[in-house]
Specification:
Elements lengths: L2 E14 L2 E14 L3 E5 L6 H8 L8 E10 L2 E2 L5 H7 L4 E4 L3 H4 L6 H12 L4 H18 L5 H4 L9 H13 L5 E5 L7 H18 L2 E6 L2 H7 L2 E6 L2 E7 H6 L4 H8 L39 H5 L5 E4 L2 E3 L17
Parallel strand pairs: 3-8, 3-9, 6-7, 7-8
Antiparallel strand pairs: 1-2, 1-4, 4-5, 9-10, 10-12, 11-12
Helix pairs in contact: 4-5, 5-7
This protein binds iron/sulfur cluster.
Length: 336
C-alpha cells in the first residue's frame, strides 16, 4: 500500500521553567493512501503534539523537534523551510481542529474565507479567487452536505450551528484537494447526533476523494466507527498499533486493555466500568523502563529496568510490552 507519510523515531520536547518536557519520545508510524489512522490515548500522551509536528505547527520556542524524520512524498518535513511548509499546509496536508470557531474568522462571510484559502495556495488575483471560490465552494459545501450553498456562502460563522460550522471547516480543509487530512478531536465539541453525522461525513469524503486521514481522539467510540488502523499512545510513545480489529478484539498491551475496559458500553452497567488506576508519568524525567509500569497489574522486574522493544505479533499488529517478548522470561519475578 502506498505510504503517504512515514514518521521515523520522532522526538519532540518543550522547554519550560521546570525543565525539558519530553512530549514525544521516539514515535514511528506510516500513514497509507486512503486509510484512516486513529491515534488514541489520554490527555498529555503526545498525540496532538505528534499531529502538530506533521504540520510543523509546534510553537517554536518553547517546542522543538529534536530528532527523527517525517517523510511526505520523499521530503523530510522536519527539514523544510517555513516558506515551503506554508505551501504544503492546506494544499497537500490540511488540519481540522476541535473547535470550528477557532478556524473561522467571525467577521468574514464564509464565502470570503473560502476564497482566502484558495488565494493562499494559488497564485491568482482576489477577483479570480472569488470567482473560483464560488464554483469550488458549491462543490465543497455539497460534498460536506450543506444545502443552499449559494445563500450560505453569504453568511457569517455565527449564523451556523456548531455541526454546520464543523462541516464548513472540513470543506475549507478540503478545498485544495489535500492528500492528507489531520483531524484533531474533530467531534469532541459536538453533541452525539451531530458527531455521528460528521463521522459519516469523513467516511463519505474518504470514499469520494481517497484522502488519507490521521484522526486524533481520546474517544474509542469514534475510533470504532471510522478507523482502519489504530495507534495507542502512552507517555509520548506508541505502545501498540494494529488494525481496528486487532486493537478492539485482540488487544495485547495492558494499557490498551485498560482503555477498552474503561469505555462505557451498552452491555455493561456503570459499576462494571474499570478506570485505569494511577496517572501517567512525569515527562520532565520519563522512566527508562516501561512508562506504564506503575499502573500495570502485570509489572515484572524487567519492566522498570528496560523499555520493551517492539514485538510484531503479525504483519499489522505490533506491541511494546515485555509480556509479549520471550526474552523477558529470564528476568521474570512477578510483583503481585
Ligand atoms: Fe506492564 Fe511490563 Fe508490559 Fe509495561 S512492559 S505494560 S509494565 S507488563
Amino acid at each position: 500500500m502506498e505510504k503517504m507519510i512515514e514518521i521515523k523515531n520522532l522526538h519532540v520536547q518543550f522547554s519550560t521553567y521546570g525543565g525539558q518536557v519530553q512530549a514525544v519520545r521516539g514515535v514511528s508510524f506510516d500513514l497509507h493512501k486512503g486509510e484512516t489512522l486513529a491515534i488514541v490515548g489520554e490527555s498529555g500522551c503526545g498525540k496532538s503534539v505528534t499531529s502538530q509536528s506533521i504540520m510543523r505547527l509546534i510553537p517554536t520556542p518553547p517546542g522543538r523537534i529534536t530528532s527523527g524524520s517525517i517523510l511526505f512524498k520523499g521530503q523530510d518535513l522536519t527539514k523544510l523551510s517555513e516558506k515551503k511548509m506554508r505551501d504544503i499546509r492546506g494544499a497537500d496536508i490540511s488540519m481540522i481542529f476541535q473547535d470550528p470557531m477557532t478556524a473561522l474568522n467571525p467577521t468574514l462571510r464564509v464565502g470570503e474565507q473560502i476564497a482566502e484559502n484558495i488565494m493562499q495556495h494559488e497564485n491568482i488575483s482576489k477577483e479570480k479567487a472569488k470567482e473560483k471560490a464560488k464554483e469550488k465552494a458549491f462543490e465543497m459545501l455539497e460534498l460536506v452536505g450543506i444545502p443552499n450553498p449559494k445563500e450560505r456562502l453569504k453568511q457569517y460563522p455565527h449564523e451556523f450551528s456548531g455541526g454546520t460550522r464543523q462541516r464548513i471547516v472540513i470543506a475549507m480543509a478540503l478545498i485544495c484537494n489535500p492528500e492528507v487530512l489531520i483531524a484533531d478531536e474533530p467531534t469532541t465539541a459536538l453533541d452525539v447526533t451531530i458527531q455521528a453525522q460528521i463521522l459519516e461525513l469523513f467516511k463519505d469524503i474518504q470514499q469520494k476523494t481517497d484522502v488519507s486521514i490521521v484522526l486524533i481522539t481520546h474517544d474509542l467510540g469514534v475510533v470504532a466507527q471510522v478507523a482502519d488502523r489504530v495507534a495507542v499512545m502512552y507517555a509520548g510513545k506508541i505502545v501498540e498499533i494494529g488494525t481496528r480489529r486487532d486493537i478492539f478484539y485482540t488487544p495485547q498491551h495492558p494499557y490498551t486493555k485498560g482503555l477498552l475496559r474503561s469505555v462505557p458500553r451498552l452491555d455493561l452497567y456503570e459499576s462494571e466500568l474499570v478506570p485505569i488506576a494511577g496517572s501517567p508519568p512525569d515527562l520532565f524525567a520519563p522512566p527508562s523502563g516501561c512508562s506504564f509500569a506503575p499502573r500495570c497489574p502485570y509489572v515484572m522486574e524487567v519492566c522498570d529496568r528496560m523499555y520493551p522493544v517492539s514485538t510484531k505479533l503479525k504483519e499489522s499488529h505490533q506491541v511494546h510490552c515485555w509480556l509479549q517478548d520471550e526474552r523477558a522470561q529470564k528476568f521474570v519475578t512477578t510483583i503481585s
